[in-house]
């Protein structure tokens, strides 16, 4: 029997596997997709997350990010990171770097989609593997979480206003080393430089769909002008609905981490950073054989980001407040800088 079976070999699953292995636990990952795995993401890794990756021994190539810029039709607010750079990094590059580190540590990756498991007092069995713990890192629409919900565990609350994400890359030299966020009344466009000649655009929208990326981009005229004539450098990928309310993370020997453990919105670009922090505390709980401590540890590392994102989402939904966000950030730069650096260090 192994110590930990991690279901899902995305960034948080691999980070959990690496952390657990470094803590001396025996780990196997079950992931049906081959390396490197792509996904709809803004691809902005905040400074604290860069440090967490470095601590795992993972240093992906990317484009340095020095802060965040908010832009609307008439206003612009900028804040620099005070404690180190972030990194704009293609998901495929990030995933390959994590997978390489996992392979170097000898972590087996089983090419399996886990659709069932059984739980006994002493262990969990899934994909023919017996493990003391099963960690579900299988993303927003976690199969493991759904099984737990079907088996009587409390289900998620319904999301009031679902939001969706779309992304595409363009071959163009980055015009900034900031993550540039363009806001309209109902949507946001995130520009993240990921290399010397590619920028990623992530759109956060109140409706799903991916076949009309250019039409949706045209709602951001300044950004459309920047990208005019630039060749597309990737397919359109979508994700959502983003909000996944999850009431518990610990179900005996089955524990949830990363997006599978609950997600609010990509508005503040903290998903990877928070997921890496969750992986760290989860590995500590399993190393100490205290899975029950994880719920509280999860809330401690995830709570601040959740509250900030919830607050920002709420203001985006208030008609009078929404149009004043960028002007306020421009006119009170110290406050904007404080919020940006709170996100950066989360
Ligand atoms: C539009 C958008 C923009 C974003 N922008 C940013 C950003 O700029 N910065 C940031 O930090 N975060 C951002 N995020 C959030 C970030 O992408 C996620 O938080 C992060 O990908 C979570 O990683 P994960 O490993 O938990 O899940 P995932 O990356 O979804 O990985 C889950 C893995 O589980 C596997 N899997 C699924 N089902 C099974 C199964 N049954 N059995 C085995 N394996 C399975 C999948 O193949 C996948 O590899 C964004 C999210 C969206 C939607």
Tell me what portion of residues adopts beta-strand conformation. 15-25%
- Radius of gyration, CA atoms, in whole angstroms: 20 Å
- Contiguous low-pLDDT stretches (5 residues minimum) are none
In one word, what is the shape? Answer: globular
Task: Report the structural category.
Answer: alpha+beta
Give an overview in words:
It contains 11 helices and 19 strands. The protein is of the alpha+beta class and 346 residues long. Strands 1, 2, 8, 9, 10, 11, 18 and 19 form an 8-stranded mixed beta sheet that branches. Strands 5, 6, 12, 13, 14, 15, 16 and 17 form an 8-stranded mixed beta sheet that branches. It has a 3-stranded antiparallel beta sheet with strand order 3-7-4. Helix 10 packs across helix 11. Bound molecules: flavin-adenine dinucleotide (FAD). The site of flavin-adenine dinucleotide (FAD) has 41 residues, from helix 1, strand 3, strand 12 and helix 7.
Q: What tags apply to this protein structure?
A:
8-stranded mixed sheet, 24% strand, 11 helices, globular, 35% helix, binds flavin-adenine dinucleotide, 346 residues, alpha+beta
